[in-house]
Specification:
The complex is a heterodimer of chains A (420) and B (532). Chain A has 420 residues and is α/β, with parallel strands linked by helices. Helix content of chain A is 45%, strand content 16%. In chain A, the strands form 3 sheets. Chain A has a 6-stranded parallel β-sheet, with helices on both faces. The longest helix of chain A is centred in the middle third of the chain and has 26 residues. Chain B has 532 residues and is α/β, with parallel strands linked by helices. In chain B, 50% of the residues are buried. The chains are: A alpha/beta (420), B alpha/beta (532). Chain A: GO terms for molecular function: 4 iron, 4 sulfur cluster binding; ATP binding; metal ion binding; oxidoreductase activity, acting on iron-sulfur proteins as donors; oxidoreductase activity, acting on the CH-CH group of donors, iron-sulfur protein as acceptor.
């Protein structure tokens, strides 16, 4: 255990088998968000298999992702692999003329054989301009865990964003994929506060990506965007520090940080946020009855764990046993860590079997974990909430606070209901 | 590089996992990067298993690349052995670890583990899931049963007087399409013949059971994709004959009974007389008359595809218009079967090629995998699943074998269900302007699910060109015949599930006769020419 300077909360760091997805899985939500983009993984059959196992329940007319599977002969020489990639991309773009942005997504195999996808992207961009822009990023398990795939994707987008003029009025950039409905809610709140120059990254369309410059103020809507933030700062943008907009408190503090930055008067802020706060509290009252006092154990998955634990503790009254995260970005999570109760056990990284031993010993009321572990733990009599759903559900903002809590209350309610 | 939208099979190490997870007392240590643990959820979610697969991953990351990945593997293997105390271990690399060449087999040997560690060489860039399962099972059988083999040339001792004949059932694994219930159905059938099942493997077997495989009199191979290699080896080493008929469908089940009875030296009659197959009567009953000549496209693993083709023609009265497989290892069997139906086999693992052929052939029913459901949905064709890969709905709670007489009952219900019911089909042929029951609305017994006539932007893709999209007049420039508005309207009066075929035949008829504009008469001339 080592002591954390920022917060004095001890962090347990472990190494061993972990049970997290790789960054490729980010494609499953990113391809829906950016509607004219295609994600081409350059990898092995394992990568293709991962994607269809994760997304295969959806029956697609035409998915906006695919895999260029590296074969034996590609491993022979790199020059060949580049030609092969060009051929595959040409075939793909011919089949999908509606595609405007193509991401070449690096995988473990493509990185181990050192296939230079960045160079391939710039070569292909030249070949296919102006119809298609080709970018590259890594979604490999070697470099990224689960939601970090969104980070590397957005970080690749940042250098491509248009330049905002140096004398432009300050504008707000909200960074991180949000459900469309949540995005629209935040937009209305900002508008009501008088903040009108607001843009979102990623945009819903590759042609509408926001401009960025020295007068850009950005706020993270997701906690897993370390690289993206760094790239934005390289372009002169300034981060607005805040906890993440989960639950009534998180949302208020998040909005407040923006309001303060843009000089919104206190009473106007209160007036705009009051209805949302009231609705969120009303919704949470019901949830609190079901969740208060219940003991929570979270396995690392998405980096959403710490903000979620803060929300579940402070607003739903849950007791925190161990909160695991794949990666702890101290600076971006400083405001969150300050809100965690003293004595919370944080763990970064994973040794799966040892962590499961601790989990079983603690007999938590709810364990948040991945799908590979959920049913086996249920069979041991431990109630679980599978974590991936938290990334695929609208959970941010006032009007989703109770929905978010409900995701944790539902397995408990179900356990109480079933008589078989 | 191969551009893949969907893949029919996973990588070979997933095949190895299917063997390990099906068994008890075996642990698999795989050298793989962070993220490859996704494969666990195939077993815990799709198959709904209540235990973690017996698999330990090293989950190395970028920063581990270099000297210490081998050390990571050794630590993982040692810890897995201590924690799970298996009777035997499997060790291998995943695709990425294959590139960094740490040699798990050699490393495991160096550890001096207290149990046998069987190394697997899985060639991830050449081979796939079923091959991986087959190779793993073969290496396990060789490694564990090998030491029990008699000296070469030794004859099998005769079965002791009074002992019932016994066989092994080979092939069922975790994540196999209906393997769970097929085992039950076939075990019951063998029991009726007075044959005991000695070991069922890999599913349910322990490494100790594997060492005892040679004790049985013969082997029943249910899934050649997984067990043929091991069965051939057992035949060589232990002189155990094995079955060649896969008992899917009534006819094949009867042949299987005869084959097994001959191998065991028992009377086949008790199993043949059994009356629990309803398919023959259901199929003969007049309600099934309208199934005659329905045009069906079949795709899947070789075993299920070949079996389905026979059942479709001999037991449903369908016409097989397309037959294919993604199992390249069994392409020969599929080619032979296709020859029997006078069609060109499709041997491919390219989803787009399958899609193109379905669009081209205009079948009325597609029997395929989860992937063909995507294709059928897009083309608005009825579809039933006959083979892996499948999703969670095809690991049902109810008893749902494909094999034996019980399996035939399941096949009848499953394949007929997506088709338009007979009366509705007739009424549609007579009255086409009903606001509720119309061609595009889809079968009413399937509720609101209409085959989507509206397609997303993606319809611009060449493969998406479907039968019902009226071609613009401009095609005349290519020498293609043009439809007059009257003929186009008349074409719409043909029920939607055969309309694509009618369009194609009429156009072919016109092209062959140099007719540039298709009139109503051309449509009926073509109908008279081609029949039906």
């Amino acid at each position: 255990m080592s002591s954390d300077k920022l917060t004095d909360i001890p962090v347990l760091r472990e190494r061993g088998q972990n049970s997290m997805f790789c960054g490729l899985t980010g494609i499953i939500w990113l391809h829906r968000k950016i509607q004219d983009a295609f994600f081409l993984i350059v990898g092995s059959r394992t990568c293709a298999h991962l994607m269809q196992s994760a997304a295969g329940v959806m029956i697609f007319a035409e998915p906006r992702f695919g895999t260029a599977i590296i074969e034996e002969r590609d491993l022979a020489g790199l020059a060949d692999a580049n030609e092969e990639l060009d051929r595959v991309v040409a075939r793909l773009l011919e089949r999908r003329p509606d595609i405007r942005m193509l991401f070449l997504v690096g995988s473990c195999p493509s990185e181990v054989i050192k296939l230079d996808l960045e160079r391939a992207a710039s070569r292909l961009s030249q070949q296919h301009q102006p119809q298609v822009r080709v970018l590259s990023y890594s979604g490999s398990g070697l470099e990224t865990a689960f939601t970090q795939g969104e980070d590397t994707c957005l970080a690749a987008l940042v250098p491509e964003l248009p330049q905002a003029p140096a004398d432009a009025a300050p504008d707000l950039l909200v960074v991180g994929t949000l459900a469309d409905v949540v995005e629209d809610q935040f937009m209305r709140l900002f508008t009501d506060m008088g903040i009108t120059r607001v843009q979102f990254l990623p945009a819903r369309n590759s042609r509408e990506m926001p401009a960025v410059g020295p007068n850009t103020r950005y706020i993270l809507a997701q906690p897993f965007l370390g690289d993206t933030a760094r790239c934005l700062e390289q372009r002169g943008a300034t981060r607005i520090a805040a906890p993440f907009p989960l639950g009534e408190e998180g949302t208020t503090r998040w909005l407040k940080a923006v309001a303060d930055t843009f000089g919104v008067a206190g009473d106007r802020f209160d007036q705009v946020t009051a209805p949302g706060i009231e609705r969120a509290r009303r919704g949470m009252a019901r949830m609190r009855e079901q969740l208060a006092g219940k003991r929570l154990f979270m396995l690392p998955d998405s980096q959403l764990e710490i903000p979620l634990a803060r929300f579940l503790h402070r607003e739903a009254g849950m007791e925190l046993l161990e909160i695991g995260t794949p990666h702890l970005h101290r600076q971006h999570l400083a405001e969150e860590l300050a809100l965690l109760p003293a004595g919370t056990t944080l763990s970064e990284g994973q040794h799966l079997d040892k962590q499961l031993d601790r989990c079983r010993a603690a007999r938590p009321d709810v364990v948040v974990c991945g799908l590979g572990l959920a049913n086996p733990l249920e069979a041991e009599g431990i109630t679980t909430k599978w974590s991936i759903e938290l990334v695929f559900t609208p959970i941010q903002g006032y009007d989703q606070a109770a929905d978010l809590a409900e995701l944790f209350a539902r397995p408990l309610l179900r356990k109480a209901k079933l008589r078989v | 590089m191969q551009l893949t939208v969907w893949t029919y099979e996973g990588p070979p190490h997933v095949g190895a996992m299917r063997v390990a997870t099906g068994m008890e007392g075996l642990h698999y240590v795989i050298h793989a990067p962070q993220g490859d643990t996704y494969a666990d959820l195939l077993f815990t979610m799709i198959e709904r298993r209540d235990k973690r697969p017996p698999v330990t991953y090293t989950t190395f990351k970028g920063r581990d690349l270099g000297q210490d990945t081998a050390e990571l593997f050794m630590t993982a293997a040692r810890e897995a052995c201590e924690r799970f105390k298996p009777q035997a271990m499997l060790v291998s690399s995943s695709c990425t670890a294959e590139l960094i060449q740490d040699d798990p087999g050699g490393l495991a040997k160096g550890l001096g583990l207290p149990v046998p560690a069987i190394p697997l060489e899985l060639s991830s860039y050449q081979r796939k899931e079923n091959w991986g399962a087959s190779e793993t099972f073969y290496q396990l059988v060789r490694g564990l049963a090998g030491p029990q083999a008699p000296a070469p040339g030794t004859e099998r001792p005769p079965r002791p007087e009074g002992q019932r004949p016994r066989c092994n059932i080979l092939g069922p694994t975790a994540l196999g399409f209906r393997h769970r219930d097929d085992i039950q159905e076939i075990t019951r059938l063998l029991n009726r013949l007075g044959i005991d099942v000695h070991v069922t493997a890999p599913m349910g077997a322990t490494p100790v059971d594997i060492t005892r495989l040679g004790e049985a009199d013969f082997n029943v191979v249910l899934y050649p994709e997984i067990a043929a290699t091991a069965a051939k080896w057992l035949e060589r080493m232990f002189k155990q004959p094995f079955t060649k008929v896969v008992p899917i469908g009534v006819g094949a089940t009867r042949e299987f009974i005869a084959e097994v009875a001959a191998l065991a030296g028992v009377d086949p009659a008790p199993a043949l007389e059994d009356g629990d197959s309803r398919l023959p009567w259901y199929s003969r009953s007049v309600d099934s008359n309208y199934l005659t000549g329905k045009r069906v496209f079949i795709f899947g693993d070789a075993t299920h595809a070949v079996a389905a083709a026979r059942v479709a023609t001999e037991e449903f009265g369908f016409t097989v218009v397309g037959l294919g497989t993604y199992s390249r290892e069994f392409a020969r069997e599929v080619r032979e079967a296709a020859k029997r139906y006078g069609i060109e086999p499709l041997i491919t693992d390219d989803y787009l090629e399958v899609e193109a052929q379905v669009a081209e052939l205009h079948p009325e029913l597609v029997l395929g995998t989860q992937m063909e459901r995507h294709i059928a949905k897009r083309l608005g064709v009825a579809c039933a699943v006959i083979s892996a890969p499948v999703h969670v709905q095809d690991f049902p709670a109810r008893y749902a074998p494909q094999m034996g007489f019980g399996g035939a009952n399941v096949l009848f219900d499953t394949w007929v269900h997506p088709l338009m019911m007979g009366l509705e089909e007739h009424l549609l042929g007579m009255f086409r302007e009903d606001f509720e029951f119309h061609a595009e609305a889809g079968p009413s017994h399937l509720g609101a699910s209409a085959p989507a006539e509206t397609r997303p932007v993606a319809a611009t893709a060449p493969a998406a060109a479907t039968a019902d999209t009226p071609e613009p007049e401009a095609t005349a420039a290519d020498g293609e015949p043009v439809w007059s508005p009257e003929a186009e309207k008349e074409l719409r009066k043909i029920p939607f599930f055969v309309r694509g075929k009618a369009r194609r035949n009429t156009e072919r008829f016109a092209r062959e006769r140099g007719i540039s504009r298709i009139e109503i008469d051309t449509l009926y001339d073509a109908k008279a020419h081609f029949g039906r």
